């Protein structure tokens, strides 16, 4: 039982520790000075992080409530989409406060694009995650077969010969197509956020203004990356269960046990799922910590002759 608790809760504590280490080493250098931006940032981080922790506990039976049988049917269908939905709502929160184009700022003819306040390497992780998720999705979807009772592509079947076979649930097309649609929505919402952050006229205190916009841009990408990581974690956890299926049949010489040819991948998939969950939660906690008010920015100095 202690090992079970470690596997389930380990990513949660690991994510918190990683975020605290990041905040102590680098995070305090990029904090806010309070205000509405900080409030919406905390709300987005807590929504995605807290929601995924609750989802993790609900899926493992550690939640201290008696759940009806209908819940487990719901969980099987929506555990993959929930992190993406939470990520989309979190990104909507990060769009606030929305600042319109105002003439009270400083005249600036420098072109501003959605990427003006981002660093190129910030996009490496989400791009790699998207490629990995797409690869796993296509591979698992191609291996899925229709469930005989529902017709949904959620089954993985192995023919053992002699009219014998074994099967298990898999992350098939029934689960993955809605997730691909939500990932598309996630990308669109992130793009809109970056446009809303970049478009307003620069404020009088240009250094502070650039800091705020860079901060908000980084958090949009962090929340999006976190949602993808948590989504990937649930996929890998599901596939770990799929590859571990076994079946035993009696023969004249005793019982014979069959397993999949890739059963050895189960520990790898479980470990990768835990790492993805830990990193995803670490990003959520880091977003929340980054909104802790720091020292107030001093007004820009004006020198006169």
From TrEMBL:
Keywords: Membrane, Transmembrane, Transmembrane helix. The chain crosses the membrane at residues 6-25, 37-58, 78-99, 120-143, 173-198, 219-245, 265-292. It comes from the Bacteria. The keyword Membrane applies. This is Uncharacterized protein. It comes from Cryobacterium gelidum.
